[in-house]
Amino acid sequence: MARNTEDWEDFTVRARPNKKGTRPRTKDRPAYEDALIGRIITVDRGRYRAILDEDSAQERIVIAARARELRRNPVVPGDFVALVGDTSGDPDTLARLVRIENRSTLLRRSADDTDPVERVVVANVDQLVIVVAAANPEPRTGFIDRAIVAAFDAGISPLLCITKADVRDPEPFLENYRHLDIDIVVSRTTDETATGIDARSADGLSARLAGTPVEALREHLASKVSVVIGHSGVGKSTLVNALTGAQRATGNVNAVTGRGRHTSSSALALRIDDAPAGSWIIDTPGIRSFGLALVDPENILNAFADLVPVANRCARGCTHKAAEPKCALDAWVASGEAGTVGIARLESYRRLLGQDEETETKELGSI
Ligand SMILES: Nc1nc2c(ncn2[C@@H]2O[C@H](COP(=O)(O)OP(=O)(O)OP(=O)(O)O)[C@@H](O)[C@H]2O)c(=O)[nH]1
Ligand SMILES: [Zn+2]
């Protein structure tokens, strides 16, 4: 029997997201054929800012409210969403966000290692930029390792960025990561007379960053969507400003919030200056670490790529924890093959496995 239009309307209103996925089946949403697809750049108190017709003359920012049928599905920066209603972007207009498009990646975290509640951080990012300072604040392998695990689990490439190399030589610390297949950028300030990039940090203090590392970073970010995380004070906003400052200064749509400083706790996507279309960086205030309650233990090991070949020598079912009597990782250390770096890497790995909870708590407590 053919449905009449009224039935369709009714069916659409009652449509519930498919349990198997966040996206309703195609036949449940014929009413949204005219929807426009936009990229979410920030979320603030139930209002979603999306960029529409990106990189065209019609490019505009649209503010949207979520439709009820999205239920509690989180919408995050980086998401592509379907918008209906008033999508003009004119002042005081509000579009309706009716659908989240399929995501290529989803970066999630739990608040801590035992909390199974998932928090979605960002969607569709290609790269996770982990920012730590060489000193002030002290760099911590725990933070980096957790971030690498979270990235690995989400299918996102990690990139390590060490700042403040002018304060302390980061190479001894970087020993832990130099042998891995992970890109590393070392940033520093330069003196007043040298060529550098003036980048005012959020606290108003100005750091003149050496140009070469910033340019190297810009190249790593080209044509990708990256998300940047780091503790307070590491120089994250100084770097982000160096990469996106011109866009803000020229009043381009990247100055989306209309605020001098991005004070909300929500992540914010910014377009990178002097980079190809589609190069975005998502700044994440407030994300200081990643609980790993949602991560498969197998993926914790996989994120320690240097330990995988050794762990492959273990008997089937070995958990690789310190209590395992015959873990090949212990033999590797005992034989001297691991070296000091190997010992540190095994300790880092086992900390994340939850072996040494007291140390882990101390470490988390001090960040
Ligand atoms: N010596 C030195 N100082 C730097 C460098 N990068 C940033 N700073 C300074 O470090 C301080 C903190 O930088 P921010 O960019 O505000 O740090 P943040 O990580 O964004 O910190 P929050 O805003 O608290 O999240 C500022 O005074 C910067 O000028 C660097 O490479 N070397
Ligand atoms: Zn083992």
From TrEMBL:
Primary gene name: rsgA
Domain EngC GTPase: 123-288
Keyword flag rRNA-binding: yes
One Pfam family from the record: RsgA_GTPase
Enzyme Commission identifier(s): 3.6.1.-
Keyword Nuclease: no
Role description: One of several proteins that assist in the late maturation steps of the functional core of the 30S ribosomal subunit. Helps release RbfA from mature subunits. May play a role in the assembly of ribosomal proteins into the subunit. Circularly permuted GTPase that catalyzes slow GTP hydrolysis, GTPase activity is stimulated by the 30S ribosomal subunit.
Domain (CP-type G): residue spans on this chain: 114-290
Stretches for region Disordered: 1-29
Bound cofactor: record note: Binds 1 zinc ion per subunit.
Subcellular location: Cytoplasm
Organism (species): Paeniglutamicibacter terrestris
PANTHER family: SMALL RIBOSOMAL SUBUNIT BIOGENESIS GTPASE RSGA, SMALL RIBOSOMAL SUBUNIT BIOGENESIS GTPASE RSGA 1, MITOCHONDRIAL-RELATED
InterPro entries, per the entry: G_CP_dom, P-loop_NTPase, Ribosome_biogen_GTPase_RsgA, RsgA_GTPase_dom
SUPFAM superfamilies: P-loop containing nucleoside triphosphate hydrolases (SSF52540)
Family: Belongs to the TRAFAC class YlqF/YawG GTPase family. RsgA subfamily.
Assembly and interaction partners: Monomer. Associates with 30S ribosomal subunit, binds 16S rRNA.
Cofactor(s) of this protein: Zn(2+)
Name by which UniProt lists this protein: Small ribosomal subunit biogenesis GTPase RsgA
Binding-site positions, GTP: 163-166, 230-238
Annotated residues for binding of Zn(2+): 314, 318, 320, 327
Keywords: Cytoplasm, GTP-binding, Hydrolase, Metal-binding, Nucleotide-binding, Ribosome biogenesis, RNA-binding, rRNA-binding, Zinc
Superkingdom of source: Bacteria
